[in-house]
């Protein structure tokens, strides 16, 4: 079957694990008093991205322009979001339909977080393009690398802070 069985099984396992991690994160948030949105954008996102960071580092070291490391991050997050959540929600919808219930997802502050993320990601891509023109997308002089790292971590912390403030209704969302 040229790998299709492995692919389908892998996608199913990703869906099951995503549902399990989502439930576990929800229980953690309920126990500690943290909203699901905050748990998702901080703990769950960090937990799924740390292994990808190491894979991207290896890819960046083995590629002249580090395109494969950027592609690895993008591809991994796309699989986590679109397939992981999509399959988990599809499975939940099927189970609920079988039981005669309607499956609904509370979007919460999703539009605000997604918009803020897209703006942040676009800004980071612009910084990477400028760095590529200067000859050091992920490399270059130590000062430039350090400043770019500080900038990217600051953008991430700003995203977490603003999303949390919106989730707890300290600032208005959309």
From TrEMBL:
Gene3D superfamilies: NCX, central ion-binding region. It is found in: Endomembrane system. Its main location: membrane. GO terms for biological process: calcium ion import across plasma membrane. Residues 3-164 form the Sodium/calcium exchanger membrane region domain. It comes from Sarcoptes scabiei (Itch mite). One of its GO terms (molecular function) is calcium:sodium antiporter activity. It comes from the Eukaryota. It is a multi-pass membrane protein. This is Sodium/calcium exchanger 1-like protein. GO terms for cellular component: axon; endomembrane system; postsynapse; sarcolemma. The keyword Cell inner membrane does not apply. Keywords: Antiport, Calcium, Calcium transport, Ion transport, Membrane, Transmembrane, Transmembrane helix, Transport. It holds the Pfam family Na_Ca_ex.
